[in-house]
Structure formats: C-alpha cells, structure tokens
Amino acid sequence: IQSQVLNLLAELREEKGLTYLFISHNLDVVGYFSDRVAVMYLGTVVEMGPVEQVFKKPQHPYTVALLSAVPKIEAHDVKDRLILAGEIPSPINPPSGCRFRTRCWLREQLGNPDRCTTEEPKLAASPRSPDVSVACHFPLENGLASTTAKGRQAIKVKTKAASTKAVPKSAPKGRTTKKRSARA
pTM to 2 decimals? Predict the structure, then answer.
C-alpha cells in the first residue's frame, strides 16, 4: 500500500505541478521521493541540501550515523552500522552548545573541543558543497569516506593526528585551542 500511495503522490505531483513537504524516518522513501532533504536532530536542522549530495557525502556526524542505519541489499552498498554511544538528550532540556555533542562519534577525536559545549553551531553553507548547509563546527571533509566503518576509522585517525598537532605544549593532553519535485 505504501508504494501505491507514493506512486499516486508522484503522479499528482507531475500532473498538477505540486510540491510536497514530506516528513519521514524512512530514508529510502525520502531518497526516492525528494529532491532536497533536511536532517534534524532534537528539533534542529543539522544538514540540508540535495538528496544526492547529503545521502552520498554526508558532512554532519549525525547524518552519517542515520544513513549507516539504512539496510542495503546490494553487496557494493553494504555499510557498517554506526552505533551511537550515550542516551538521547531531552528535547525539553537540550545540552548546551551542539545538541549532538553528547553522542558525537567524532568529538572525542577532536579532543572534546570546548566549542562544541559552549557554542551552538549555526546552519551555514558548506565550504565543500555550496548547495549543502551544515550545522557543525567540524563538518566532515570527505563524507563519502564516512559511510563505512573503515572510512570512519580513517577519519578518526586523521582527525586525532591533526588535533594532536594543534595542541600547545602547555595545554593538557587531549585539549585543542549537507527527478523529483517533492520536498522533504
């Protein structure tokens, strides 16, 4: 029945020139039905842009985790699921700074930067993809690499090495000074 409803919506979209705001947790449907996507965490948009770019080269660590949970049948598309540590924070009383920081798989590798705790990242155009906006102080350079466990490990190692180089000698160890016309 879901496919029949989606096909009917697609037909109406084409016939009537409609635009939809489609809200779903089913990322396969979002990918099929949408041109653009906005990924939200605790009620805040963390990444937004064309579906093809956001789904293939995610730049926000939450988008990476969300996409890793989508099961794939094709052998070449197999992704290792990223299990986030910690509890989901309360949306009524969200954490200070970045709302995702308490579960971010990359934050530790960055030396747990104070900026993530004190400053809420603003949704802004990505320097890597002007059509994508991302709300992260440290958006991923190569989102494609983040879609596999091996790629994420390489990102962690590279990030940890870069943050270690940035640590002043007097600082304590580990510290560092985002053809269908529907819309989702």
Answer: 0.74
Residues 84-107: b if buried by 16+ CB within 10 A, e if exposed: beeeebeeeebbebbbbbbbbbbb
Q: What are residue 66's phi and psi, to 5 degrees?
A: -60, -45
- Within a domain: residue 28? yes
- In angstroms, the first-to-last Cα distance of the chain is 20
Domain of residue 100, CATH code = 3.40.50.300
Domain membership flag for residue 114: yes
In Å, how far are 17, 63, 65, 159 from 33, measured between CA atoms?
14, 18, 21, 35
Match 């989508």 to its residue by tokens.
70
Mean pLDDT taken over the chain = 78
Q: Does residue 175 lie in a domain region?
A: no
| Domain membership flag for residue 170 | no
Are 50 and 180 within 8 A, CB to CB? no
Overall number of domains in the chain: 1
Backbone angles phi, psi at 144, to 5 degrees: -60, -40
Q: Max alpha carbon distance in the chain (Å)?
A: 66
Confidence of residue 135 (pLDDT cuts 50, 70, 90): very high
Question: In the chain, where do the E strands start and end?
Answer: 36-41, 44-50, 124-125, 133-134
Range of the domain at 127: 2-165
Tokens of 22: 């489609």
